[in-house]
Design brief:
Layout (H helix, E strand, L loop, with lengths): L7 E11 L11 E2 L1 E14 L4 E6 L5 E5 L13 H13 L7 E7 L9 H14 L6 H16 L6 H8 L5 E5 L4 E5 L5 E11 L3 H22 L11 H6 L4 H26 L2 H18 L5 H11 L4 E7 L4 E9 L3 H16 L4 E4 L7 E5 L11
Parallel strand pairs: 4-6
Antiparallel strand pairs: 1-3, 1-13, 2-7, 3-6, 4-5, 7-8, 9-11, 9-12, 10-11
Bound molecules: alpha-D-galactopyranose.
The site of alpha-D-galactopyranose has 12 residues, from helix 4.
């Protein structure tokens, strides 16, 4: 007999902007992201037909799987892989998946380096759990595992972690080795402004994989002399000066070692209210991504450089995986409106593209947004 519809619940998980520490997560270093108030929302409607249905507001096609097929489902190179990957990870951890329809909507712009995929993973995991308890670190880990193993993207844990642990009004410094974090307040009078270049170069995913393996090569070179070294987190600039390795591999490692140092320096500078130092660290981080890690592109290099010529801008750098997406800018709050006008004008004059700009409001981490009274039978159809 069909199970009666019993409830509708909605779960929310935010996207993020990373302030500093890029590609350091899978090298077990530090990162400093902020959870956005832009989020993905997943509404769960219980169904009685033994199937998991997915319906995305942005991509209107209804997809479904028999619940008992989920454990053996294969990736389709489709947005649904994020959800099915998460379902598989839950099943592996002993959670059953109840037949239901997940209605998905998101205000995290896709392909812009603001982690729309992690937001979808985390919101889907909570929706599939339907209120069952889970350890928060475990939740972040299983969502990352879904992306690594099912989607096939060897990402680190930053995006999923901050989507779970985001703090209203603050950044979160994550130690990607211990998986602990601390909350970091930015000084008064400075706003975090995101500028979306609206470009995303295809290179992104394959270059990400290349960087992961170049970092592993650097670790192997250092391990030859220092077998105790586990990851680039343990590597120092002195190691890089002393140990022979291909020049390109050395530059990749140098970005990771210095950007992880920059996270700590930035957090200390923020505690002292030293805006000038915070800004310089942003600029150094961008240059390191541009020349050593080689993950920027002409459009975001332009945005980062142009920003620094605009009054009120304290620091600017690309944020996220790279090859397009967004820059993150520290702007004196009273200059935000003039900065926004000027960066949009300059970018459109040079590239003919209308950049979109928003001021970051740090939102809280993932959770349930509302519970409503039981639905009528009419909503069986979703
Ligand atoms: C992507 C990945 C993250 C992280 C960033 C770069 O967003 O998903 O794990 O590596 O790139 O910092």
């Amino acid at each position: 007999m069909a199970e009666p519809v019993s409830f509708v619940r909605t779960f929310r998980a935010p996207g993020r902007v990373n302030l500093i520490g890029e590609h350091t997560d899978y090298n077990l270093g530090y990162v400093l992201p902020i959870a956005l108030n832009l989020a993905t929302y997943v509404e769960v409607h219980r169904r009685g037909d033994g199937r998991l249905h997915l319906l995305s507001e942005q991509k209107p096609e209804e997809l479904s799987w028999a619940v008992e097929e989920l454990a053996g489902a294969q990736p389709r190179k489709h947005w649904s892989d994020y959800v099915i990957g998460v379902a598989q990870q839950l099943i592996r951890r002993g959670y059953s998946i109840a037949p239901c329809l997940l209605k998905i909507r998101s205000d995290v712009p896709e392909g812009s380096g603001l982690s729309s995929s992690a937001a979808l993973e985390v919101a889907s995991a909570l929706a599939l759990l339907g209120g069952r308890a889970i350890d928060k670190v475990e939740l972040a880990k299983l969502c990352r595992a879904a992306e690594n193993e099912f989607v096939g993207m060897p990402c680190g844990i930053m995006d999923q972690y901050v989507s779970v642990f985001g703090e209203r009004g603050a950044a979160v410094q994550i130690d990607c080795r211990t998986l602990e974090h601390r909350v970091v307040q930015l000084p008064e009078g400075v706003s975090v402004v995101v500028v979306n270049s609206k470009v995303k170069h295809e290179l992104g995913n394959s270059a990400y994989r290349d960087r992961v393996s170049e970092c592993a090569m650097a670790v192997a070179a250092v391990q030859h002399w220092h077998p105790e070294v586990q990851s680039l987190r343990d590597v120092t600039l002195q190691h890089l000066a002393d140990i022979p390795m291909p020049e390109l591999v050395m530059r990749r490692a140098r970005h990771i070692v210095t950007d992880t140092m920059r996270v700590e320096l930035f957090v200390n500078a923020a505690a002292r209210g030293n805006l000038r130092e915070m800004g310089m660290l942003f600029v150094d981080s961008h240059r390191s991504m541009q020349h050593d890690y080689e993950i920027t592109c002409a459009e975001v290099d332009f945005l980062a450089e142009a920003a620094m010529e605009i009054p009120g801008c304290i620091g600017a750098r690309m944020t996220g995986g790279g090859f397009g997406g967004c820059t993150v800018n520290l702007v004196a709050t009273e200059y935000v409106a003039s900065f926004t006008r000027e960066i949009v004008n300059r970018y459109s004059e040079r590239w003919g593209i209308e950049a979109s700009v928003f001021v970051v409001e740090a939102g809280e981490g993932a959770g349930e947004v509302r519970s409503v009274e039981p639905e009528g039978a009419g909503s069986l159809a979703g």
